[in-house]
Amino acid sequence: MSGLRERLGRLRQETSEAVIADLSVNSLPAASVAETAIPAERERDSSIEQESRLPSGFRQIGVERMSNESGQFLLRRIEYDLPYRHGHYDLEELIACASHLHPVAMRQNRESEAIDPYRLLFLDTETTGLGVGTGNVPFMIGFGYYSGNRFIVEQTLIRHPGEERAMLTYLLGHMKDKSHLVTYNGRTFDWPVLVNRFILNGWRRSGPEPGHLDFLHPARALWRNTLPSCRLSMIEEARLGIHREHDVPGSLAPSLYFQYLSDGNPVHLHGVYAHNEKDILTLASLSVHFGLLLSGNVQPDDIEATEGEELFRTACWLEQHGLTEASERMFSLLPDMKGIDDGGWGLALAARYKRAGRHELALPIWRKSAAKAEASALPKLEAHIELAMYYEHREKQLPTALSYAEKALELTQRRSRLISSAAKRKEEKDGLQHRVARLREKVSRERK
């Protein structure tokens, strides 16, 4: 037993000496550690010079090393002299029409300052993942802003997690005098990701958050049913006249960043830089598009709508934002547009005509929609019900009203696959049965 105690004692002593030695080295000033690791002065100077020089893959696209009180990060800055056209729009146009975006800001923020183009920060991040959790790191933050007669794009990049705080510090410096972040899905993705990173780097929320101008929501309001998708790349090509060549999809950005981390070759990131830069320019171009729409000066012919639905959605969007005169100009063109019975927008337009007392405009839509429903495997009943009500209450043509009600009741058999709730199916069927019974009784009394 005594021998075991002696061996344990020697082991504790050796371990303590090793720990003390390790602490003494790690607690030395940086210069002392460097001298211990590289005793030769010439080798140390060569190492420092090599460290201070960025790889040519960064330098050839204008990336520089930046330092602030929080450390180092990489920065690329591009200046565009105004006027500068990106697609259909000149970015200089936003200076005149930005104030018209105030209704959008009010809907998204409940209250909002007036929109000053020089206080907007156009923001787009490239992250290591898709979620908004703490594990998703924005390795590149791109932002744009107006300064004098220029539009400036800046792109920050971190080479390792130790540079994140410096990058975020730089971003906060640019946010101080800005009133709104202009993004595309930024309210639910980019900004929450950044908030998480601020918190993890020691910042705490204080004061109001920046206002938001997130154009994903207006884009969906106008184009969700008329374009294959509402991805920014689809919007810019189909509606903004922007065509990218050899573009790196944003979905590939994380893997390209990890490839750079693996072998240190910045060329992997060239496409990511270009993609992020174009996204920021497109945000400014999209802002011009919606600013001009809300100015009320855009004519229906200026809208690239090949079918009536887009014109209808645009008119509704303008009406929601208080531009009644501009929306009425577009609504007035819809009766002559093709495809008016397609989808749900035709019935929505007919309902609007009905509320305005313009039944003569609603009738053709209801009839077309009813004919389409009767030929469909999954029919809608709204048109038949509207026609039944119209002929019963306005035209007093009870047999015609009964015919439409009976047809609607017949179509409920096909609709059973549309309604998962048995209670809702029963409610719909019972309502139509009651309507048919009442109309049959009225027709019977009329014939006596």
TrEMBL record:
Residues 422-448 are annotated as: Disordered. Residues 424-448 have a biased composition (Basic and acidic residues). Residues 121-288 form the YprB ribonuclease H-like domain. GO terms for molecular function: nucleic acid binding. InterPro entries: RNaseH-like_sf, RNaseH_sf, YprB_RNase_H-like_dom. Transmembrane segments: none annotated. PANTHER family: EXONUCLEASE-LIKE PROTEIN, YPRB RIBONUCLEASE H-LIKE DOMAIN-CONTAINING PROTEIN. This is YprB ribonuclease H-like domain-containing protein.
